[in-house]
Design brief:
Elements: E1 11-14, E2 35-38, H1 44-50, H2 59-65, E3 68-72, H3 78-85, E4 89-91, H4 99-112, H5 118-122, H6 125-145, H7 148-170, H8 179-192, H9 195-198, H10 207-222, H11 237-250, H12 264-277, H13 282-306, H14 316-323, H15 330-334
Parallel strand pairs: 1-3, 1-4, 2-3
Length: 336
């Protein structure tokens, strides 16, 4: 007994509900002369756009006599399996990069909407500020530790903050905007500030000149009157000093015009300035030293407990003895 075969032009078309009414281009020519059906599991919006009924009970027999095109959201359904086994062509489209972001937006909307999470519904831009700061520093820790799994997770947590703030912004009665407006603004900015990539601008020779050009274009776009306009004044003081020094240097302000003096603040600014002008990052370097010091303290505390002493009861001399021969792990942290 020979196996049933479907008519030429029959196909199973896989569509992704997250892409709404998007249909793979290769399926379009087949629709003209075929009987078109849509599995009930397909998203209602997609079924409505197709205007296609559910497949009949005798779908396979019908496909033997005329071309049949079945739209499905999952190739594992019984009708799709039967058509495939009988020789129907399978048509799909590769998922575009970033498709999972649509799920993230959907989940955020669900959490924020009526019937979602009460805590999420109560938040606003001000209450979320602390979490953005915390998640950013946790991401920096993952980068410093070269922990790939933590890096992936913390990038997701930072992305959540972007989605959360955009969802809150969409509810603003006076000036609403959503995640699409955020993304569109970013795309416009990236394209306009990279004319050497997206337009006919002259190619830049190195990363530093490209960075300088970025700053020039930013000044023009935002119509800033000062070279320090747009600097985030709420960032950590060492990073703020380094950013101001960078702007001043690019504007041609000489090093001797930078703050210097005997006060602690002026001395710290001077160190940050000299580090930045030498090509370093004072914030990263200070953080590396601080983290190394924290590791030395932990090692000394472990030594103390190993010898039967509690760290809280150690004298200054005992601390010196426990920490004197501990290597500084800063260099080790910098190794690839």
């Amino acid at each position: 007994m020979s196996e049933a075969r479907v008519a030429e032009g029959s196909a199973v078309v896989l569509v992704d509900d997250r892409l709404g009414e998007v249909v793979p281009a290769a399926a379009v020519p087949l629709l003209r002369g075929a009987a078109v059906f849509a599995e009930p599991g397909l998203a209602p919006a997609a079924r409505e756009a197709l205007g296609a009924p559910e497949p009949p009970a005798d779908l396979l027999a019908r496909a033997a006599g005329e071309p049949v095109v079945l739209f499905v959201g999952d190739l594992g359904c019984a009708d799709a399996e039967a058509l495939r086994a009988a020789g129907a062509r399978v048509i799909g489209a590769p998922a575009p990069a970033g498709l999972e972001l649509l799920d993230a937006v959907t989940v955020m909307d669900r959490l924020r909407s009526p019937g979602g999470c009460p805590w999420d519904a109560e938040q606003d831009h001000d209450t979320l500020r602390q979490y953005l700061v915390e998640e950013t520093y946790e991401l920096l820790d993952a980068i410093a530790d070269r922990d790939r799994e933590a890096l992936r997770e913390e990038l997701g947590d930072v992305l959540l903050q972007v989605l959360f703030h955009a969802r809150v912004a969409a509810e603003d009665a006076a000036d609403p905007f959503d995640i699409d407006a955020v993304a569109a603004g970013l795309v416009s900015k990236l394209v306009s500030r990279h004319p050497h990539v997206f337009a006919d601008g002259s190619a830049e020779l190195d990363a530093e000149s490209q960075h300088a050009r970025w700053e020039e274009l930013k000044q023009q776009e935002k119509q800033r009157k000062s070279i320090v306009d747009g600097v985030a004044l709420g960032q950590p003081a060492v990073a703020l000093a380094a950013k101001l020094v960078q702007r001043a240097n690019r504007a041609g302000i000489p090093a001797e015009a930078l703050p210097s003096g005997a006060s602690p603040g002026e001395a710290l600014f001077d160190i940050a300035a000299r580090t930045k002008l030498a090509g370093g990052d004072p914030e990263d370097e200070l953080r590396a030293v601080a983290l190394a010091f924290a590791e030395r303290i932990r090692a000394a505390e472990w030594r103390a407990r190993e010898s039967g002493r509690e760290p809280a009861q150690l004298t200054g001399d005992e601390w010196r003895e426990l920490m004197s021969d501990l290597s500084d792990p800063v260099a080790a942290r910098a190794e690839p």
